[in-house]
Design a protein that fits this description.
The chain is an alpha+beta fold. The chain is built from six helices and five strands, in the order ααββαααβββα. A five-stranded antiparallel β-sheet has the order 2-1-5-4-3. It is globular, with a radius of gyration of 14 Å. The two termini are 22 Å apart. The mean pLDDT is 82.
Length: 137
C-alpha cells in the first residue's frame, strides 16, 4: 500500500478507480505516475510497480511539447487529447486521453483505446460517476 492509498480521500474512491475496466492513472504536477489501476498497467503491458514512478510521456510515440492539456488540468480544468502510445511489447494504440483534476494537486488520466468499440454505456457511466465524485471533493 502506498502513502496515497493511506489517504482517506483517495481510499474512498479506490474501489471505483480500481474496479474500472478502463486504464486510469494519477500523475503529480511533474507528470509522474503515483498510482495506476490494474487495467492501466495491463493496457500498457506492465505491472503496476513498473508504471508508478515513470513519466506519462514515456508511453507516447511522438515527441510532444509540454502540453496545454496538463497545464489546464493542473489549473482545475479538464482537458482531452488524442495520442499514439507505445506498449511494453512494442505494439501501438491510439488513445483518447482525458486529464481530469483530482485531489492534492494530482491529475487523473483516463485513456480510451480508440481502436476498440468495446466501451459500453455502462463503462462510461462508471467513469462519469468517478469523475463527478472526484470533482466534488
Amino acid at each position: 500500500m502506498t502513502l496515497l492509498e493511506d489517504d482517506p480521500n483517495f481510499a474512498a474512491f479506490l474501489p471505483l478507480l480500481d474496479g474500472s475496466l478502463d486504464p486510469i492513472g494519477l500523475v503529480d504536477e511533474r507528470g509522474i505516475y503515483v498510482w495506476v489501476n490494474d487495467a492501466g498497467a495491463r493496457f500498457f503491458g506492465y505491472e503496476r510497480e513498473e508504471v508508478v514512478g515513470t513519466h506519462f510521456r514515456f508511453h507516447l510515440i511522438e515527441e510532444v511539447e509540454p502540453g496545454d492539456a496538463m497545464r489546464r488540468a493542473l489549473m482545475g480544468n479538464p482537458a482531452t487529447v488524442v495520442r499514439r502510445v507505445r506498449r511494453k511489447d512494442g505494439s501501438r494504440a491510439i488513445v483518447r486521453t482525458e486529464l481530469i483534476p483530482a485531489f492534492r494537486g494530482l491529475v487523473m488520466i483516463h485513456a480510451t483505446d480508440l481502436r476498440s468499440e468495446e466501451h459500453t454505456s455502462e463503462l462510461q457511466s462508471h467513469l462519469n460517476l468517478v469523475c463527478r465524485l472526484l470533482l466534488e471533493k
